[in-house]
Specification:
The strands form 3 sheets. The chain has a 10-stranded mixed sheet, with helices on both faces. It has a two-stranded antiparallel sheet with strand order 2-13. It has a two-stranded antiparallel ribbon with strand order 9-10. The radius of gyration is 23 Å and the shape is globular. It is α/β, with parallel strands linked by helices. α6 crosses α7, α10 runs antiparallel to α11 and α11 packs antiparallel against α12. About 7% of the residues have low confidence. β11, α15 and β12 form a beta-alpha-beta unit.
């Protein structure tokens, strides 16, 4: 795939030096929002009670959807939705739906959080809307009622033992699946990306829109891609940011597989930062010293964990450190946090205060994530422990920073709740109205996986790759070139004539 190189410069210059754009879409007139389609009930908007830190203009409401879309006259549930309406009705052209990530992340706060990052011109052109997916947040939240110790990220991410053994990981995966299946499974059984796409279409109807524009981030790109596959002619301007690999084989082994590549792609940025003489949290004289120092420290903590009060578990071992590194690579803003943890552990200083989410929030996120991931595959491979052992050993040798975790066993290997549908395959059939934006170095959704989604869409999509590290690109990393491409598409429908590479600021 060939990328046109477009290097970032100060905003005024970039506006003059962007490559020529081709009109990929015919501009659509504003969608008729005066009435909901037949059979849909318009949303009754009101205050967002019990939420803090919101834009005062944000409103909340609910949309009733079937628990089982195959039985529309059966039991129903209310999806929590939110919006910040355009303040310029004359400029409004429709709805921009923010599709949350995860799976398992709430979206009710997104019009205020991500929405406030949008250029004013975009906020004038759209009502910015989001939602809590089924089973999440205020949309009939699910829980597996896991014990506190099983909510540790060291267990939820299947880190092998220090010697590479996966016996404990196999036992944990089976226990998590059994615990989820022993509780109330009515909602868990219905959670999947295809059902989220159907829920999104019910939201579209309740909004009174013939078509939706969308901004999907992280897992939201996969949900957005599945919606665009299932309801192609209900899509208007479709932005996918930090893109998931849609390969059904990859989905069938869970959503962690790309971390092996993502961490390796992103670590050099951290190493360069950690060796910068101007950095007060500097860890080494030279960038090439950071990797061996980190690996040696993790190995030492495998043998000699350090007590860490308030953490879960209450010790800093090698896998907890590896997990902390992985989490820090989501954003350069997190680099200082893990650097200080590394320095304290290495030098024998006091460890920083542990930061953990409340168990209640973790219970919901974990249950929703597991149910969606496991239900997205119609038939798990049934691989035995020996297959996972070989994969883990190979990954540990090739990608030591993640120590085999990304290919280790997940609870889905023991999941018995369903689903009843095949994994969705993304194809080039449908309108050419997708714009993908992607950081070149992304720990969670690496470029290699994003390119697979780009290939699957074919001529339906164009792609903007940004020379940046981190997870989330549009109006998130300061790249004026990438931001301008997406903003222009949302406002005019124009996309680049071909795929574009936006270089580093000042290059």
């Amino acid at each position: 795939m060939t990328f046109t190189r477009t290097f970032r410069r100060p905003a005024v210059t970039v506006a003059l030096t962007l490559p020529a754009l081709a009109t990929a879409l015919v501009a659509l007139p504003p969608a008729d929002a005066t009435a909901a389609p037949a059979g849909a009930t318009a949303i009754q908007w009101g205050p967002c009670t019990g939420m803090s830190g919101l834009d005062p203009r944000q409103e909340c409401g609910t949309v009733s959807v079937p628990l089982d879309h195959a039985d529309p006259s059966g039991p129903r549930l209310d999806l929590a939705v939110s919006r910040i309406a355009s303040e310029k009705p004359a400029a409004r052209r429709g709805t921009l739906l923010i599709i949350p990530g995860g799976p398992g992340n709430p979206g009710l706060h997104e019009p205020s959080r991500r929405g406030r990052q949008l250029p004013q011109s975009v906020r004038d052109a759209y009502d910015v809307v989001s939602f809590d997916p089924r089973g999440v947040g205020r949309s009939a939240p699910v829980s597996c009622e896991l014990p506190h110790e099983d909510l540790a990220m060291e267990r939820l991410r299947p880190w092998p033992a220090a010697d590479g053994s996966i016996d404990a990981a196999m036992a944990t995966a089976r226990r998590l699946a059994d615990t989820c299946e022993a509780g109330d499974t009515e909602m868990l059984r219905t959670m999947s990306t295809r059902n989220e796409a159907r829920d999104i279409d019910r939201i579209r109807q309740a909004l009174g829109e013939r078509k939706l524009s969308a901004w999907g981030v992280s897992y939201g790109t996969y949900a957005g891609a599945v919606y665009a596959q299932m309801f192609p002619h209900r899509t208007d301007r479709w932005v996918l940011d930090s893109n998931d690999d849609p390969d059904p084989k990859r989905v069938a082994r869970g959503w962690l597989a790309n971390y092996a590549v993502g961490v390796e792609d992103s670590f050099p940025d951290f190493a360069a930062w950690a060796a910068d003489p101007a950095n007060p949290d500097r860890l080494a004289e030279h960038a090439d010293e950071v990797r061996p120092m980190f690996l040696a420290l993790a190995a030492r903590l495998d043998r000699e964990p350090i007590p860490w009060r308030g953490a879960n578990p209450e010790e800093l071992n090698g896998n907890v450190l590896r997990q902390a590194l992985l989490d820090s690579l989501y954003s350069e803003k997190r680099f200082p946090v893990v650097a200080r943890l590394i320095a304290a552990a290495r030098d024998g200083g006091p460890l920083p205060a542990a930061v953990t989410l409340p168990d209640e929030a973790m219970q919901n996120t974990v249950a929703a994530s597991l149910a969606t991931i496991c239900n997205d595959v119609d038939a798990w491979s049934g691989d035995g422990q020996e297959v996972y052992e070989k994969d883990v050993a190979d990954s540990r040798a090739r990608h030591p920073l993640t120590a085999g975790m990304p290919v280790n066993v997940m609870p889905c290997a023991f999941w018995d709740l369903g689903p009843s549908e095949p994994t969705t395959r993304i194809t080039p059939q449908g309108p050419s109205n997708v714009l993908m934006i992607q950081n070149a170095r992304d720990v969670a959704t690496p470029l290699a996986g994003a390119l697979k989604l780009r290939a699957a869409f074919g001529d339906r999509a164009r792609m903007v790759v940004v020379d940046s590290v981190g997870h989330a690109a549009y109006v998130d990393n300061g790249n004026a070139c990438g931001d301008a491409q997406v903003t222009r598409f949302l406002l005019t429908g124009e996309r680049p004539a071909g795929d574009v590479y936006c270089g580093e600021q000042g290059a």
